[in-house]
Amino acid sequence: MKAPAKNYLGAAIVVAAGCAAPCAWAADFSGSATLTSDYVFRGISQTQGDVAPQLGGKVAFDSGFYGAAWASTVDYGDAVGSDAEVDLVAGWNRTFAQRWNLDVNLTRFTYPGTRAPLNLDYNEVITTLTLDQRWWAMLGWSDNALASGERGIYVEVGAKFPITDEFRLETVAAHYDLDDAYGDSYSRAQLSAIYTLGSVDLRASGHWTTDSAKRIFPGVAGSRFEAAVTWNF
Fold this sequence. Notes:
Layout: H1 9-23, E1 28-36, E2 40-41, E3 44-45, E4 52-60, E5 65-73, E6 84-96, E7 100-110, E8 122-131, E9 135-142, E10 152-162, E11 167-177, H2 179-182, E12 186-197, E13 200-209, H3 211-216, E14 224-232
Antiparallel strand pairs: 1-4, 1-14, 2-3, 4-5, 5-6, 6-7, 7-8, 8-9, 9-10, 10-11, 11-12, 12-13, 13-14
């Protein structure tokens, strides 16, 4: 039986709520709705290559604290039971020295409807440092990575390359240390072309993983293409 995820989220929500009361008048709301040909998370398909609708929302305050929720369909097979992922996020974001942005959050990955005794829910602390809104480095840490009951560390670097006002390229290189959880780790790369039409993003992405990802996640890792359309509101 997989070890249950520790509930750090409650403490984070209490902190965010403490700010929310005095800052409610300064709340900023945003969201997005996406239809993607394949929900790919860190190089691994979560839908076995099938289409996924996705919806997210975020409320942010002048203090830098924010809360967010995001949902997508998933397909882990009939034995698992769940066909949805719902992520809950409590975090803090701040721009400093005009060029740098720091984001620290606690993300709770949940999978409603999972059949007992399975427990796929887990927490991850994610820190992202961004320079000039173009270059970023991310570190994710969990003591229950992918609900394995063991530690996992995710490291990612990425960059945006504007071609025109509407068109840009994005690249990602990353490594997921899952030695404690699965006895192996893997690396991934991603190249995306994104075209923006008003509040709509059209995205085409290529994903690649090392062969070790195929051993950990057979059938859903390796090279794959993804196309998506996102409405930002």
